[in-house]
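Treating backbone geometry as a discrete language has practical consequences that deserve illustration. The sequence in question and its structure tokens are set out directly beneath this paragraph.
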Amino acid sequence: MSTTSTGERRVIGNVLKGSVGNLIEWYDWYVYAAFSVYFAKEFFPEGDPTAQLLSTAAIFAVGFLMRPIGGWIMGRYADRRGRRSALTLSVTVMAVGSLIIAVTPAYATIGLAAPLLLVLARMMQGLSVGGEYATSATYLAEVASPGRRGFYSSFQYVTLVAGQLIALGVQIVLQLTLSAEAMQAWGWRIPFVIGAVAAVAVMWLRRTMDESEAFTEEVAAKSATDRPEGTPEQGGIRMLLQYPRECLLVCALTLGGCVAFYTYTTYMQKYMINTSGISKDTVAWINFAALLVFIVLQPIGGALSDRIGRRKLLIFFGVGGTVLTVPLMTILGSTTHPLIAFGLMMLGLTVVTGYTSVNAIVKTELFPTKVRALGVGLPYALTLAIFGGTVETVALALKRAGHESLFFYYVTGCIAVSLVVYFFMRETSDGSPLDRTSTDRTSTDRTSTDRTSTDRTSIDRTSTHTDTPDEHADLATSRH
């Protein structure tokens, strides 16, 4: 077997281990929303069922607000201690959070401690998911072959959506096998136990992953040189502040994409029920089928980005989302035909694929190894918490006020803002090794001091061999 094929098999193995963990994390995250209708009465005093559901929804929101903190803590840890260690820690925290929910006694047994433990568990899950995105995106990009980074990184959204579908699948199976009374009494605990056990298994699996070569080389370069006094610590906020343009770019890239993603995946289900008037059972099947196709589209989009670049797919999403959102949502709101509704939803998800399939890789290619996980995680999580996490709130508030169509224009406006950025941003993929790509690109926007530091890092990283004239020529070519 050739060295090349052996190396590619090792890449595939690492990608699979990272992706399975990502799937379990998102399964645990979505199980809360899927089963909250059953456990709401268990954690809160008896009374108004609506108030109980609102209480569980508020705790769900707390988890969302914890994601930026998770992006900061886990991103910082990943940049200092390694991607593998951070991914293992992330899934461990998720396992503990799920286990707490599974075993916490009801309010009738332990009183106020029940909702407090639920809040604690959800906070832990929010921290875990917030760190999982950035670290997983960084790891998948760093272990992938240079010419296939888009393809391998696209599996992050494959596993994200798959986790949601598995959570729904477990719910359907339990509803078919258990009575309503059993589901209410103890059946809802089963999916959390499944999630906790699976997370423990993934924790062991992730310990067998290879550390990314980019991080290993960065550590070697760091240990080979003395850090000048006053130099920002690796993975710290001070170092991240040296990349303000990249941080703002991540926020702008995320704005339109996260609003569109949550509109066409999460809110779409409620929209078809409340506005279109399609039955809940039919909408469930439409949603399930559309998300299955959406999963298949992700690696196709990722592979395409390796051939034509990330920027063209982002522009496809930006133009399509800006032009089609208002007419698509308007037509969908006036139809009750399941096939037409499915077709319209798939049209929207196909457009969104231009963003989701390259969402992770385009951001990781902006930053150097020393601050990559934090640089991807913190700006993304902040933008997601502010805009992505409020999609349903904005949509339902406008509907209640009698101005539902304004929501369509809100989504269009967010996508249009990102589209402007897509038009003027540089292409982040050129087939170069990840560190060379990010270092060369970001160095053009630094002060002369930072450029000197970046060049010194590049020299340190290659100090183990003598450059040949051909290698100098290659480097010059890549920079042009």
